[in-house]
Structure formats: structure tokens, C-alpha cells
From TrEMBL:
The keyword Iron-sulfur does not apply. Pfam families: Aldedh. CDD domains: ALDH_F5_SSADH_GabD. It comes from Hydrocarboniphaga effusa AP103. The active site is at residue 249. GO terms for biological process: gamma-aminobutyric acid catabolic process. NCBIfam families: SSADH. This is Succinic semialdehyde dehydrogenase. Keywords: Oxidoreductase. One of its GO terms (molecular function) is succinate-semialdehyde dehydrogenase (NAD+) activity. Belongs to the aldehyde dehydrogenase family.
Amino acid sequence: MTQWMREASLIAGQWVTADRWIDVDDPATGERIGRVPRCTGEQTAQAIAAAEQAMGPWAKRPAKERAGILRRYFDLILANQDALAALLTREQGKPLAEAKAEIAYAAGFIEWFAEEAKRIYGDVLPSHAADKRIVVLKQPIGVVAAITPWNFPAAMITRKIGPALAAGCGVVLKPASQTPFTALALGALAQEAGLPDGLLNVVTGSAAEIGDVLTSSQTVRKLSFTGSTDVGARLYAQSAPSIKKLSLELGGNAPFIVFDDADLEAAVVGAIASKFRNAGQTCVCANRIYAQAGIYDAFVEKLAAATAKLKVAPGTEAGSEIGPLIDDKAVAKVREHIDDALSGGARVVTGGQAHKLGGRFFEPTVLADVKPSMMISREETFGPVAPVFRFETEDEVIALANDTPFGLASYFYARDLGRVWRVAERIEAGIVGVNTGLISTELAPFGGVKLSGLGREGSRYGIDDYLEIKYVCMSV
Ligand SMILES: NC(=O)C1=CN([C@@H]2O[C@H](COP(=O)(O)OP(=O)(O)OC[C@H]3O[C@@H](n4cnc5c(N)ncnc54)[C@H](OP(=O)(O)O)[C@@H]3O)[C@@H](O)[C@H]2O)C=CC1
Ligand SMILES: O=C(O)CCCC(=O)O
């Protein structure tokens, strides 16, 4: 399909296979695209050893040299944007325009951290004694394990490997089994860019088997994971005996609040962008939309009208805005959430059914009269359903928005400046979008609070998790 599609894992600079394989399908058709090796625990251990060996000389290279190689990597990703996007859409299903945007976003993390490699500053601190000097060094943390999900097969990888490589670490990456080809293509491009053999390893296979080896290894000093809260919690526990540093970017349940004084047209545009990106399969997607009583009916009507216009089609078709869901389980979860809401008194304003294209396509849906007790309010739907709740006061909606164990993204539309400050400060979330439904950029710190995780990715803060601080006390 493209020169970058590999049916092999990348370990110690070699493309390797295994006795067992995992089939990968196209979510739009269910057809098999190809297969990737189900690597063994032993192969995972080889990848860890290769990363450790490669990172010694890599970390010693001047930051400017590391930055130069990463900059070449960025250029190569962008030069191959169309081919990578086509591969991504084939295995993940999202519309080609979104896939292209994701490749640019993914490349942006490599560019940003290539630049940050040169800014890993140490420090000299005021001393406690006349004959002592306090020097602070920042050093690479060690071998990094990265475990990534299927919903952003490129960007979730580069925002982990970008800072890791920039800091001087070696990496073992385990991509999601449903979308391994984009990851392997990123591995091939890293080789092409001149990354030393073994510095970036891409190991495909059984999550539990590879995860066990990565978490139990003493050599792996840092684990960065994006995915479900259940798996994140398991990896946290498994990493405890070896006291690894963890970054966990887990599930969300984002509130999207529209106050009476909001610009309604802008709020609809923001809600569509936030809710229906990647067919709703994003951890920062609006999951609960709260509209204040005075504008509730008008907002629901406008949102439904805009939702009904979204084009559902295979991601490869021109103009596609909503592709298929990733698998049958995802479709079943959407169905279950809608049925539960309807049985509790909610009503469908638009959509509500499997799409006539069949398979994993689902109609973009708006539900009204939704209640906080419903499943759709308590759990992340991860699908194209916008449930709209009614509220009366600012205090009430803050309480509703915060009544969740999750705290990743949140959004609200309002024009009163005092309210903007109050709400932004009171919402329990790592990210707050004010009068916007799109908050993702490599320039900002991305991450959550509560069960949504630990650590921040992107921005100048994103490299800290890949560094250790060493205090050197000098007697002069
Ligand atoms: N925060 C986010 O961005 C995401 C949140 N989710 C949420 O999670 C739900 C389930 O999605 P799902 O794909 O099952 O997410 P998972 O958390 O199961 O998968 C994410 C990654 O973790 C790996 N993994 C799974 N089990 C283990 C394990 N025991 N040890 C090590 N690695 C493991 C997966 O590998 P493999 O693919 O081989 O199973 C994949 O690479 C979604 O419906 C959504 O609500 C999902 C994806 C992203
Ligand atoms: O669902 C996720 O974890 C990916 C978030 C994508 C983004 O960075 O916006």
C-alpha cells in the first residue's frame, strides 16, 4: 500500500517476525489489511536491552546533534504525510482529512521536542555554606516504555517518543494491536532519519505479555501510557515493585457547558468539533453537554440541525466527516448507552440508529432530556452521541460537571468575564476550553486529574517526565 507499511516489528534496528501473528482489519469494510507479529516476551526483553545499549551514546551526543536528527525525522514525517494518512485511515477508519491533520499534529510533537532538546537547562542554586556550591543537572531518566491506543495511532506515539528521544532516552513502543501499521511506519521513518539502531523499538503483540515484561523490567525507568483507566491502573500497580515513573493519560468524561449568555452559533460549532472528532472516539470529546434552561431548546435544535448534516462515509471517501467506529464492541457500547437513556425518558432528536451503510457505521446522534443518573452521563461513550442535559444555575452545573471520577478535558461557552474566571477555576479538569471546542496542540500541556491520569504531555512541561534531577554538591 505504501513503502512504509511493514508486517514486521522493529527490534534493535532489525525488522523481525514471530511464529504467531495478529490480523489487522479495515474498520470501514471489515476486510483484513495485513498482519503483524505477535512478539514474545523474550523479543520484548531484547528490545529493552537494545534501547539501553543505544541510549548511552545517544545521550552523550550534543543536544544540537540530537535535535538535528529529530528535525530530519519531523521533515520526513511531513514529506510522507499523504502516505501515512492513507495508512492511518485504512487501519483506524477516521476521515482522510482528520488523518492528515493527525499526521501534522504528530509531526509537531517531534518538531517541538527537537527544539526543546537544546533547552534542557540545569541550574546553579544559592548555596547553604560559603565553601559549597549547589549544581542541578538534568539527565535522561533511562529506558522508556510507551504503550499507545488505537484512536490516535500517530500522535499518541510522537508525544511520548518525541520528549523521550529529545531527553536522550531509548524507547520500547507497544502500539495498539488494532492500529500497528502507522506505528511501524513511524519506526521505518525514524530509521530513515538516522536514529541509531535500537534507540526506538516497535514491538507488536499480546498486550498482557509485552506489558508484563515492560512493567517488571528494572531497566525500564519510565512508562508512558494512553488508554483506558482500567488498563492504566493495572500498569500502575504492575510498575510499583520497580518504582517506575509513570505518565498516564486515561479516560475522560468531558462536560461541555453552554450558559445563557453564550454565543449560541459558536457553541454549536464548538460542540460539533469537540463531540464528533474521530466519530466521538477521543478522550477529550464532549461526553456530557449541559445547556442552561433559557437557551436549552434553541441550542438542542441548532445542534441537531448541524449534526444531521454531518456526512457519514468511509474515511477514504471525499467529504467524509464521520467514519466507522473501531470495532463491533464500540458499536454495541453506543447502542447500550442510547437504549439506557431512552428507557429512562430521554428522546432522540436526530440519529439514534446504526447507519444504513451497515457494519461499524453509526448515525451521529443528539439526545435531549438526558438525566445525570443515566449510563451515558456516568461513562465515556466513545462514539457519535451528544446527550444534552438541562441546568438552571452556575453552582448547579459546576456540581454536575464535577460529579465524575474523571477530569481530563472540559469546555464552556459564556461571555460574562467574571463567570469565565469562576468556572475555569472551579472545574476539576486538567484542560479547560473557554469558548472553543478544540484544545489540542503540541504547544500546550495535555493531561488530566483524578482517574484521568498523571503527568502532562506536550509543551515545555512535557519533557520533565523523561528527565531525572541530579543534585551535585561541590566543595570549593
Ligand atoms: N485515553 C484515551 O485516549 C483512550 C481511552 N480509551 C477508553 O478505553 C476504552 C477501551 O479501549 P481499549 O482499546 O480497549 O483501551 P485499552 O486501554 O485496552 O488499550 C490501550 C493500549 O493498552 C494496551 N493494553 C491493553 N491491555 C494491556 C495490558 N494488560 N498490559 C499492557 N498493555 C495493555 C492495548 O494493547 P492491545 O491493543 O494489544 O490490546 C493498547 O495498546 C474505550 O472505549 C475508551 O473509553 C481507549 C483508547 C484511548
Ligand atoms: O483520546 C486521546 O487520548 C487522544 C487525544 C487527542 C488529542 O491530543 O486531542
